[in-house]
Amino acid sequence: MKNNYTLMDNIYRTNTGTQHLVKVIVMIVLGCILLTLSAKIQVPFWPVPMTMQTFVVFIIGMSYGFSFSISTLFSYLILGAIGLPVFAKGGGLMYLTGPTSGYLYGMAVAAAVIGFFADKGYAKSYIKSFLAILMGTTIIFVFGVGYLGLIIGYDKALAAGLYPFILSESFKIALAVAIIPTIWKLTK
User: Fold this and answer.
1) CATH number listed for the domain at residues 7-186
2) Longest distance between any two alpha carbons in the chain, whole Å
3) Are 141 and 163 in contact, with CB atoms under 8 Å apart?
C-alpha cells in the first residue's frame, strides 16, 4: 500500500507555503537537537555503553521520509563542521575526518535510504520497517567500519567498531520497529 505522505506529514499537517516552510524548519531543528542529545547521552549497556544516536536516525528516517531526513542529517553535519559541539565529543572539521567520521556519513546515507522506504509506506508495517532499518544499520556500519578499517586495519575495526555494538544495535532496531508502525496505527 503506497502513500504519498510520511508519518510526520500525518501528524503535522500544513496547508500553505508559509506553514510548510515553518514545518520544515521545525522538523530540521528538532531532528538536529535530538541527534545532538542522543550523541551526548550514554546508556549503560553490555558490552559497551551505547548512545541512542542511530536510534534517532532510524526514527528520523522512518517518520520524516527521504527529503526531510536527508536535509536534517546534512544540517546536523554542517552544524558540526562549523564547530558547534553536536557530536559525541565536540565538533569541527577535524571531527568529520577522524576515525569515527565514517559512522557520521553512514548515518546520513542511512537516513536517506530509510526515508526513501518510509516514503513508499514501509513505516506502516512492522516487517517492512524492520527491513528498512536493518538496511540503514548495515549502511552505517559499512561506512563506519570501512573508514575505520582504512585507518587501523579491518580486524581491529571489526573488533572495536562492530562486534561490541551488535547487541545494542539489535535493541535499537527492535525499539524503532515497535514504535513507528504503532504510532501510524494510533494516528489513523
Assistant:
1) 1.10.1760.20
2) 53
3) no
Residue with cell 516487517: 127
* Segment 21-68, tens digit of pLDDT: 888 899 999 999 999 999 998 888 766 678 999 999 999 999 999 999
Cis amide bond preceding 47, omega within 30: yes
The overall pTM is greater than 0.85: yes
Tell me 6's DSSP state. Answer: -
Residue 124 CB partners (closer than 8 Å, separation 6+) = 1, 3, 181, 184
Q: Which of 69, 56, 71, 52 is nearest to 8 (CA)?
A: 69
Supply angle C-alpha 116, 119, 124, rounded to 5.
115
Q: Are 124 and 184 in contact (CB under 8 A)?
A: yes
What is the grid cell recorded at 116?
526513501
Whole-angstrom distance, CA of residue 109 vs CA of residue 34? 18
